[in-house]
Amino acid sequence: MTTKKPSMYPYIPNSVPATKEAMLKAVNAKSVEEFYADIPDAIRLKRRMNLPEPLLSEAALVRHLEGLLSRNKSTREVLSFLGAGCAGHYVPAVCDEVNSRSEFLTAYAGEPYEDHGRFQALFEYESMMAELLNMDVVNVPVYDGFQATGTALRMAGRITGRNVALVPATMMPDKLSKVRDYVKPDLQVELVPFDPSTGLMDLKALKKQINAQTAAVFIENPSYLGFLETQAEEIGRVAHENGAIFVVGVDPISLGVINPPAEYGGDIVCGDIQPLGIHMNYGGGHAGFIASRDEEKFVMEFPSRLFGVATTCVEGEYGFGDVAYERTSFAVREQGKEWVGTASALWGITAGVYLALMGPQGMLELGQGIMQRVRYAVKKLNQVPGVKTHFPNTPHFKEFVVNFDKTGMTVQQINQALHEKGIFGGKDLSAEFPSLGQSAVYCVTEVHTQADIDRLVNAIKEVVK
Amino acid sequence: MTHATPKKPGAPKPVAPKPALRRFHQASWDEPVIFELSSAGQRGVLPPEPEADLVEAAGDVFDNLPASLKRKTAPALPEMSQLHVLRHYMRMSQENLGVDLNIDIGQGTCTMKYSPKVNDQLARSHKLTELHPLQPLSTVQGILEVMYRLEEMLKEISGMDRVTLQPGAGSAAIYTNVAMIRAYHESRGEGKKRDEVITSSFSHPSNGAAAKVAGYKIITLPPDADGYPDFEALKAAVSERTAALLITNPEDTGIFNARILEFVDLVHAAGGLCSYDQANANGLLGITRARDAGFDVCHFNLHKTFSTPHGSGGPAAGACGVTKEMAPFLPTPTVEFDGTSYYFDTNRPQSIGKIRPWYGMAGNIFKAYAWIMSLGADGLREVSEIAVLNNNYLLNKVLEIRGASAPYAKGKRRIEQVRYSWEQLTSDTGVHSEEIGFRAADFGTHYWTSHHPFVVPEPMTLEPTESYSREDLDEYIAILKHIANEAYTNPEIIHTAPHNSTIHKIDQESFDDPEAWAVTWRAYKRKLKK
After folding, report:
1. Quick check: B267 and B242 in contact, CB under 8 A?
2. Cα–Cα nearest to A7, from B355, B118, B382, B487
3. pLDDT (0 to 100) of residue A199
4. Closest-approach residue (CA) in chain B for A76
C-alpha cells in the first residue's frame, strides 16, 4: 500500500498547494517540470523511487527510531573495557549543553562577523590545546586522529623534501592502513620493529633504518598497545641528527600528567580529541588535531584552517579570522596544501569546553587517577592464574595488553564468556599481532570504579578456571 | 484595522506595523577571551576520585616514568566555575547565526536546510552516543540496521550498486572516490600510465585538491560561453593518461549540463572513469540519478542534501556510491545482512582500506536515515521540486535588483542554486560582493560570495532550499535590494559595515604576517611582549 501524500510537509513550507501555485505563477511556469527542461529524457527517472513508505507523523517516526535504538546495548548497560583509539571517558553535561546549542549546531561556514562566536570558540579551542601541548600553533580540527597523522607526515615530507616515514610497528593496523594510503604519493612508510619484552621501539633498528631519505620519525605516546614510549627523547635526537622531523601522536587526555612532546623534541604533534568531552558515538566522535611551533616553515604547510586573533576598529574588541588563508585549497584549489573542507569543528568547540571545565587541576587529577586505576587493574589481573600483562616494566597510560596464553583459551572465548556476565572485554589482538599470542588490549578510564575493576578480575578468574 | 484605530479609553495602545526591514542587532557581549576569565582555584567539574584502597594498592604510579615523560608544570588552562564556563559559551553561541535563526540561503553550494529537532534529540540517546565501535555485533544490531537501510536507500536514490558511509564529510568522500579510482587503474596495471584527473573550475575546490593529494596531475576545464564546462576543452584534455573526470551537475551556476552523457562517454572511451560530485543533488532527488548518466562513482553529503546539521563546520558525513565493477575497492568494512542479522565484511582484499576510524559518523548516519524515513519517495521529490521552485522564484527577484545579474544561460531556468554577479554594481558604485555580505550581517542574515577562483566577477551564490518559505525569500530579497540601493546612494554605510553585528571591522593585516599572526592566545601574548 502506498502512503497517501500529506496536505503539506512540515519541513517544506512552500509545499502548501496554494503557495506552490502562486509561486509558479510568479515565475510564469506551468509546472515544476519546466525547470527540468534541460535534463535529457534519456537520464530522467520515469518512475517513483522505490523507498520505504514514510512515517509522516513525528510520533510514528519516533516509535520506529526508538525501536531501532532499543536493539543496541550501550556501555551504560554493559561494563566496558574497550578502547583501541576510542574510549569511554566521562562527558560533562556542559559539553553536551554547548554542542546542542542550535546556534553552533546548525551554523556552517559563516563569516567572522555574524559567526563571531564560532570563530572565538575555535580560537579558544586552539589556545587551550596549545597550553596542553606547550605549542604555539594548533589547527581547527581535521576529521580524526588518523587523518591528523597522515597530514602531519605529509607536512614533514614537504618541509624536508624527503620521501620516507618511519613509524612504529606497534601502530593500530587500521590507522596504518589509512596513513599508508594517504601519504602514498609523497612518502613510503617503513615500520620500525619493537622490542618484544618492553614494547618500545627497537633503537638499533631505527638507527639502521634512518637515513638522508627519512622525512619523519613517528612515535605514539602512549602507543596503541597502551605503553608509554620511554625512549622518546632519544628517538627525537636520532631523528634530528638525521635531519628528519620528529612527529609524535599523543592522547591529549594524558597531558595533565605526561610531558607534552614539545618538551622532549616533538616538532609536529598530532592525535585525536575524542577523549576530551566527546561521546564515542559508535566511532563518530573523532576529530584530529595537529600542532607545531610558530615557525613559518611549519605554519605554511598546514592544510587546515588556522583561526587567529586581531584587533578591530573598536578599541578593546577582539576579531578573529583566517591566518595565511592563501595556503589553503579554499583559496587556490589544488595549488594549496592538501585540502580543507568540512571536518569536525563542533567537536573542537566541545573539547574547548571540556578543557575549560577541567582546568589544570582537573587534568592532573584525571591523568593520575587513570594511571592509578590501570596500575591497580594490572596488579590484580596478574594475580589471576594463567593471566599476565605484556610489557610489565614499561609505564602505561590508560591501556594495557593482557595475555591469556597460559589459560588455554582464546580471547574470543574469553570475551564471549565475559559478555555473558555483562562485561565487554578488551579488543582481541590475536589477528593483528600474532606475536603477542592470545592477547587483548584493555582500556581503563576515570569512569571505572574499584568495584568495576574487581568485577572484571573476578569474572576473568571464573572464566579461565 | 486595529493599528489605525485611535486609542480608546480602556483599550490597549495599538502597536505600529513593523518596518519593511527587520531592525536587527546581534548579541554583542563584549566577551573577553576565556583565559581572561580565569580565577585561581576555581574548577568547572571534578573528576571521579579513585578509591583510597585502590590508590594505596596502586602505589607510586610515576615510579617507572622517566623524567623526560613527567609533566613538570601544569598546563595553563583557565580556572573557572561551571556556571562561568557555561555562560561564556552561551554568550558566544548567541554571537553565532545558524539555520535555526537566520534565512540561511546566502551560503550557496552548502544546502543549508532545516535539521529536524526530533532527529537530533533521538541521536543523543545513550543507545547511540555510548556505543563503542568494537562491541559484539549482537549489541549493535539497531545501528547496523540503520547503516544497512540507509545504504539501500542511497543505492535507490543514486542508482548505484553499493554505497559506503565511511567518509567523514564531502571532501573526504571525494578523496575516497579518487582513491578507489586509483586502485581500479592499479588493478589493471594502468596505475602509472593514468596520472591525470580532469575537473572543472565551477566544481568544489576539493575535487582538484583531493585528486592532487592522491598523486594526480590536475586539468581544470574552464566554463564555455554558456557557462557549461567546456566540451572542446574536455576533448583536448582526454587521453590515455586520463584516470578520471570529477564533475558536478549542475555546477555551482545551477545550470544543468545537458551534454553530460557525451562527457561521460568521451572519458569512458579513453578508458577513464567518471566521478559525480553530488553536493548539488538537492534539486534532483527522484528526477535523475548518477548511474543513469553513466557515472562509475558518486558521492552525497549527508549534511547537505540529507539534512544533518552542519555543526559549525562538521562533524558531517559523506556517502560514496559505486557500480558493481568498483565495489571491490570500497573502504573496509562493508555492512552486510545474512537474513537474520547484520555484520561487517572485513575480508575485502582489493579494498582501499580505511578512510577513517571505524564505520562512519554514526550520529549523522542515523539522522539522515530518519530524515529520509520522514519523507519517503514522494517527500524527497517534493524536497527537490520546491527547492527548484524556490530557486527560480528567487532568480526572478534578484534580476530585478539594480546592479545584479545571473551570468550565462540567459532566460534559462536553473536547478537549485545560482551564481550571481554584482559586477555591474561594483563598477557603478565601487562596492564589492564581500562588502555586501558584511552589510547583510546587519540585517541578521549570512551571505557568502563563492568559492575561489572568482570566475564570475563579484560573485554571490544563493541556494534557497526547500526549508524556506516564500516570505523568507521575499525578506532576503528586500535586504539585498536595500543594500544595492545603499550602494548607489550611500556606499559609505556599506564600506564601514557591519554596524549591528557582534563586532566591527577586523584589521586584516596581521593574518598574513608571520611576525604578527597569532593562532593561539599564548602566541599572541608572546608576540605582544616582543
Report:
1. yes
2. B382
3. 97
4. B130
Q: Which residue of A has its CA nearest to B309?
A: A106
Does domain A93-355 match CATH 3.40.640.10?
Answer: yes
* Beta-carbon separation of A131 and B511 below 8 A: no
- One-letter amino acid identity for B61? V
> What DSSP string runs through B266-305?
HHHHTT-EEEEEGGGGGG-TTTB-TGGGT-SEEEEETTTT
> Hey, are the CB atoms on B48 and A314 less than 8 Å from each other?
no
Q: At what angle do helices A450-464 and A411-420 cross, to 10 degrees?
A: 120
Q: How far apart are CA B206 and CA B177, in angstroms?
A: 12
Contacts of B61 in chain A (CB under 8 A): 368, 371-372, 374-375, 395
B429's grid cell: 558604485
Q: How far apart are CA B47 and CA B337, in angstroms?
A: 42
Indicate yes or no: CB of B171 within 8 angstroms of CB of A340.
yes
Note the pLDDT tens digit of each residue in A318-360. Answer: 999 999 999 999 999 999 999 999 999 999 999 999 999 999 9
CA–CA min distance A211, chain B (Å): 24
> Residue range B398-416: average pLDDT?
96
**Gap between the Cα atoms of A127 and A129, Å rounded:** 5
- Closest-CA residue of chain B to A38: B258
CA distance A224 to chain B (A): 13
Using a CB-CB cut-off of 8 Å, the residues of chain B touching A368 are: 61
List the single residue in B with minimal CA-CA distance to A5: B378
Write out pLDDT tens, residues A374-407: 999 999 999 999 999 999 999 999 999 999 999 9
Chain A residue with minimum CA distance to B249:
A39
Determine which of A27, A108, A171 to mutate to test the interface with B (most B C-beta atoms within 10 Å). A108
The answer to whether the beta carbons of residues B131 and B365 sit under 8 Å apart is: no
For residues B355 and B334, what is the distance between their CA atoms, to the nearest angstrom?
12
Domain B126-373 top-level CATH class: alpha beta
B393 touches A21 (CB < 8 A): no
Instruction: Give the minimum alpha-carbon distance from B6 to chain A in angstroms, rounded to a whole number.
Output: 35
In chain B, which residues have their Cβ closer than 8 Å to the Cβ of A27? 389, 392-393, 395-396
Check B392 against A29: CB less than 8 A apart: yes
DSSP labels, A286-352:
--EEEEE-S-HHHHTT--S--EEEEEBSSTT-EEEEETTGGGSHHHHGGGSSS---S--HHHHHHHH
CATH number attached to the domain at A79-87+361-464: 3.90.1150.10
- Top residue of A14, A349, A375 to mutate, by most chain B CBs within 10 Å, is A14
Give the whole-angstrom CA distance, residue B436 versus residue A134.
Answer: 40
If phi > 0 it is left, if psi is from -120 to 50 it is alpha, else beta; for residue A85 that is left
- For β-strands A307-311 and A318-322, DSSP reports them as antiparallel
Q: Which residues contact B65 (CB under 8 A, 6 or more apart)?
A: A228, A230, A258, A395
On whether the CB atoms of residues B214 and B178 are closer than 8 A, the answer is: yes
Q: So what's the pLDDT on residue B4? A: 58
| CA distance to partner chain B, nearest, from residue A465 (Å) | 23
H or E segment and range at residue B182? helix B170-187
Q: Contact A446/B523, CB-based, under 8 Å?
A: no
A382-386 long-range contacts (CB < 8 A, ≥24 apart) are A383/A457, A384/A457, A384/A460, A384/A461, A384/A464, A385/A464, A385/A465, A386/A464
- CB-based burial label for A34 (10 Å; 0-12, 13-18, 19+): middle
In the block, which residue shows the cell 543533488? B281
Provide CB contacts within 8 A for B67, sequence distance 6+. Answer: none
Alpha-carbon gap, residue A309 to B521, rounded angstroms: 8
Q: Which residues pair with B298 in a beta bridge?
A: B276, B321
Residue B1: the pLDDT is: 47
Nearest to B134 among A51, A84, A372 (CB): A84
